[in-house]
Amino acid sequence: QVLDSQYGMYVWPCAVVLAQYLWVHRRSLPGKRVLEIGAGVSLPGVVAAKCGAEVILSDSEELPRCLQNCRRSCLMNDLPHVPVIGLTWGRVSPELLSLAPVDIILGSDVFFDPKDFEDILTTVYFLLEKNPHAQFWTTYQVRSADWSIEALLCKWKLKNTHIPLHSFSADKERLASSSLPGRHTIEMMIISLARSDGT
């Protein structure tokens, strides 16, 4: 764990919950192509790679320290060949356009600042359009009842499925010998393209 006041330099409660989901579903991960967005310390992506997934880690190209942290996490976990790329939410870049196909997109606590919500979903929608079978697995911390992505999901023709934490033994204050997630209210959902019939 790297402790720093900067957001992408710290293991947050949502990362531990998403890592738990990946661990519970580890038998389905070998050979899956996984992209973690807003990776920061990269705990979920590292767990996915350790479970046999082909992982690419990404964070904002404007945050070189976060990208450096992704690389450091890979080295500390004997994953020197995991690619780390700069992807800024809401921005079309050569890195985004040239991404290899993906099966799973990961994002832990990316829905942190409401001003970023649409940029995140724009990027996710672009990736799901290119990979219609893919899913976006995301955990978020409930910080305000006023913050919602429901209208944006409709706008971008995305559907979400709520995943109860008890279904993967994450409804606890301590996971994997960690003091996280603590007493924070964490939620998980899987976002995918809505079919043309609206489902």
Automatic annotation (TrEMBL):
GO CC annotation terms, alphabetical: cytoplasm; nucleus
Pfam families, alphabetized: Methyltransf_16 (PF10294)
Reaction equations catalysed: L-arginyl-[protein] + 2 S-adenosyl-L-methionine = N(omega),N(omega)-dimethyl-L-arginyl-[protein] + 2 S-adenosyl-L-homocysteine + 2 H(+)
Entry GO MF terms: protein-arginine omega-N asymmetric methyltransferase activity
InterPro entries associated with the record: Methyltransf_16 (IPR019410), SAM-dependent_MTases_sf (IPR029063)
Keyword Amino-acid biosynthesis: no
Location in or out of the cell: Cytoplasm; Nucleus
Chain segments annotated as transmembrane: 6-24
Protein name: Histone-arginine methyltransferase METTL23
